[in-house]
Amino acid sequence: MASITLKDIAHSYTGESENPDDFALKKLNLTWRDGGAYALLGPSGCGKTTLLNIISGLLTPTRGQVLFNDKDVTGLPTQERNIAQIFQFPVIYDTMTVFENLAFPLKNRGRKKTEIEPRVIELATMLGLENELHTKAQHLTADAKQKISLGRGLIRKSVNAILFDEPLTVIDPQLKWELRSQLKFLHKQFAFTMIYVTHDQTEALTFADEVIVMYEGEIVQVGTPEALFERPEHTFVGYFIGSPGMNILPCKLQEKNNIQVEGQTITLDKKYARIDPTAKIELGIRPEYLDLAPPGKGGLPARILRVDDIGRHKIVRVALGSRELNVVVSELTGMTGDETSLLVDTSHANLYINDHLISGEEL
Ligand SMILES: Nc1ncnc2c1ncn2[C@@H]1O[C@H](COP(=O)(O)OP(=O)(O)OP(=O)(O)O)[C@@H](O)[C@H]1O
Does the record bear ATP-binding in its keywords (predicted)? Predict the structure, then answer.
């Protein structure tokens, strides 16, 4: 296992350029701890696969260095980086049995039968493939084939890191949950350095100790699932994490801890230094930290546009002046008519300047 450091990494598919827009990856600096479980999360086209390919050696970055345990591997080909990769679709030998497929990476490196056999059985058992060991892969379902792929990636204990590129895409939704838990368990057992690429926030948040959120070729936040939820450092993170995402409302900072949203004043729990008046200022508040009360019971006058009952709670779409936002309310919250009062839990309000979180001073 190894720690992985990205030092001033940038990549343009058209080669060196003066134009920042040519870069699929902007300047990245990051260290992935030895034995850590990370998820790389972001929308399609944000640069996740490009970054993974730079780590694995399939791509040489236009700028910067990749270090494995302080050793510069930027110029090394994939075969010399000693990493395992698992892709979206199964990469296995159809004519081989499950046992032969799992054993292949070890056999290929000249490992003894006495070492191979117990390891294959151990891993097959963890993945629930123990009863299929002597079945040819071609007779198995797509799910089972992808399990073999995962097993092949996990079989060698000595790899520097295991890279997963959307590995559960072909897996049946029911099984996804089970496999994610198995991967987490395997990580705890073997302490591999794991990097898991996905655009699915549930997958990222359940798998990883730390999530790296990417947006337009940049890392916008590295944090625990809790930090991404409570303190999104960029409006994109607020919007992307959570279902529905964070409400982002343009506002004006009036004085210290008072802001004005759609002509109404909200008093925040923190005070903020003077802000450049030309800057874009926004309030970020999660739907879970808003509530509704009957009109006239304090709060901000708002209008109910729609109510979606999704079982354990309701998602209410309300209009605050010309802005629309989501509010998550309990199943028991009664609503009569269109008029309502919007209650803001200001202890969970975040303020953003030009999309970046600013920290206020406790009052
Ligand atoms: N081989 C290539 N040549 C030119 N441009 C590329 C190439 N591969 C990717 N790109 C561009 O680089 C940017 C980042 O792509 P990348 O595939 O890394 O994103 P991603 O986050 O992995 O997206 P997805 O989830 O859709 O795979 C995109 O604008 C993409 O069009």
Answer: yes
Omega of the bond leading into 244 within 30 degrees of 0 (cis)? yes
pLDDT given for residue 191 in this prediction: 83
The predicted complex's ipTM stands at: 0.98
DSSP lists the bridge partners of residue 361 as: 271
Distance 315 CA to ligand 1 centre (A): 34
Q: Which residue has the tokens 């151990």?
A: 122
The residues facing 282 across adjacent strands are 250, 352
Coil/strand/helix, residue 166:
coil
pLDDT 10s digits, 259-292: 999 999 999 998 888 778 789 999 999 999 999 9
Q: Among 208, 239, 270, identify where a domain stops.
A: 239
Residue with tokens 């490992």: 111
Question: Among residues 204, 239, 274, which one ends one of the domains?
Answer: 239
pTM of the shown model: 0.89
Ligand 1: residue of 17, 23, 49 to mutate (most ligand atoms within 8 A of CB) is 49
Query: Which residues constitute the domain of residue 216?
Result: 4-239
Q: What is the band of 51 on the pLDDT scale with cuts at 50, 70, 90?
A: very high
